[in-house]
Amino acid sequence: MVDVGAKAATARVAVAEAVVRFPKAVADALREGGMRSKKGPVIDTAIVAGSMAAKRTHELIPFCHPLAIERCRIEADFITDTSLAIRCEVAITHKTGVEMEALTGASVAALTVYDMCKALSHEIQIGPVRLLEKSGGKREVKSGKVVPR
User: Fold this and answer.
1) Number of C-beta neighbours around residue 32 at 10 A
2) Is the omega angle on the peptide bond into residue 128 within 30 degrees of 0, that is, cis?
3) 144 belongs to a structural domain
4) 3-state class (DSSP) for residue 108
């Protein structure tokens, strides 16, 4: 684990995105059914799962610090007829960043969507999963690109 003892606590925010791509018939069926599958409300369940995962990232990824997350917001919107973008924003005031928590939250939310919908098709695809934004540490990321501070 990296020693963060000498670092200053600063406000840190990270936003990650995972894209779930559905066959057209599945996307149409989900929309027509109010984003519900036989298992229940797809997006609501994904939001709960992603939030839980973000808070437990340190249990899943070796060497991640356990963090008391101050904000975790997950949103899901169709960006094309068949692609659902899931964004996870995590914020904290701490000595270490929260990009792993945001990536984990977005990933697990996407996996939950797959699980909720796999009875409709096993042709659902997840990806890419990427960091969109990061602020508050040595480096900043905007629109998926590192920018100088």
Assistant:
1) 9
2) yes
3) no
4) helix
**How many domains does the structure of the chain reveal?**
1
Q: In DSSP terms, which residues pair with 147 in a beta bridge?
A: 140
Task: Provide the terminal-to-terminal Cα distance of the chain, rounded to the nearest Å.
Answer: 25
pTM beyond cutoff 0.85: yes
Q: Is residue 19 part of a domain?
A: yes
Separation between Cα atoms, residue 106 and residue 84, nearest integer Å: 12
Query: Known catalytic residues?
Result: 115
Which distant-in-sequence residues (6+ apart) come within 8 Å of 24 by Cβ?
Answer: 81, 82
Could you report the per-residue pLDDT of 45-59, keeping only the tens digit for each?
999 999 999 999 999
Residue 29, both tokens: 């069926």
